[in-house]
Sequence to fold (282 residues):
Amino acid sequence: MILKMEESIREFQFQIIKSKMTANPNVRLVLEDNGVKGEHRVRDLRPIGVRENGKINAVTMDSDISTEVTTRESGCQILCDPGVAYYSSRLQTERIATAEEAKRLSDAIGSPIRVADPFCGVGPALAHMINIPNLVSSVLATDLNPGAIRLLNENLRRWMRLPFDIDNTEFTEWGEGLWSGVADAGQLEKMKVPMDFWNLLIINLPHKFLRFLPLLLPLMDSSKPYVVRGRLVCGDDEIPQIKTKISEDLPDGSDIIIDPRSEYSPSSKLCSVTIRTPDSST
Ligand SMILES: C[S@@+](CC[C@H](N)C(=O)[O-])C[C@H]1O[C@@H](n2cnc3c(N)ncnc32)[C@H](O)[C@@H]1O
Fold:
């Protein structure tokens, strides 16, 4: 369980931890959240309560308790470590929607699809799709954070039953159509990733969505309809201009949906983005 702890209630910290852990018997560890930081978007966390042999204890400053944990989403098990790599259980509905989008795309194309997730973190979006039989034929899973890639490789090993060397975080083609590793999404072309090949692109880097979209579109197989799913932070009244700007890089007739989901700041919104290009063969 991850909690924000206001200074005004700090003196009651242990009572709060105890009541939360008593009410939620599956919680092993309570972590204080000091926000998401840096390029890797990792949470600054401090363990403050732990369940040991059924007893709830406070955690001392110098303890080295592991923050690695396995979560479950729609029947998928995802290994993550919120102290090492970004993971948010709140994005589960977005991931379910992405998997639905992937199924529609696969039906439209008439074959399993090729999915590129160049900001993949520990791979939660991929989990939902890989676990659907015959939906995905190729995967590109890359991230700047080596800690995220180690967890991702362990997840891929479990989901795909492949003999991964999880400590090898270098960009690697593990088998036909399966690439993972540390990579800057802006440098994929230089890393011999196939271009003009992918059917579904995921861009979950909300502050830089607009910067990366044009850099990543050359990945997409433009001979077939393709889909981009992502998240984007923008000013309250910027959505119409952003749609116009995005459409300049896309085939005519593309459907661009920018759906505000929550307040990001008093004057900006966090939006879910779906882009569908038309089927030019019909
Ligand atoms: C908001 S997190 C999303 C992670 C994952 N897609 C998820 O939904 O859990 C953004 C991720 O992008 C990675 N990242 C940031 N800049 C990057 C870049 N230039 N190239 C590749 N990955 C990057 C961070 O390390 C982080 O894991």
User: Anything to note?
Assistant: The chain has a mean pLDDT of 92. Residues 111 and 135 are 8 Å apart (CA to CA).
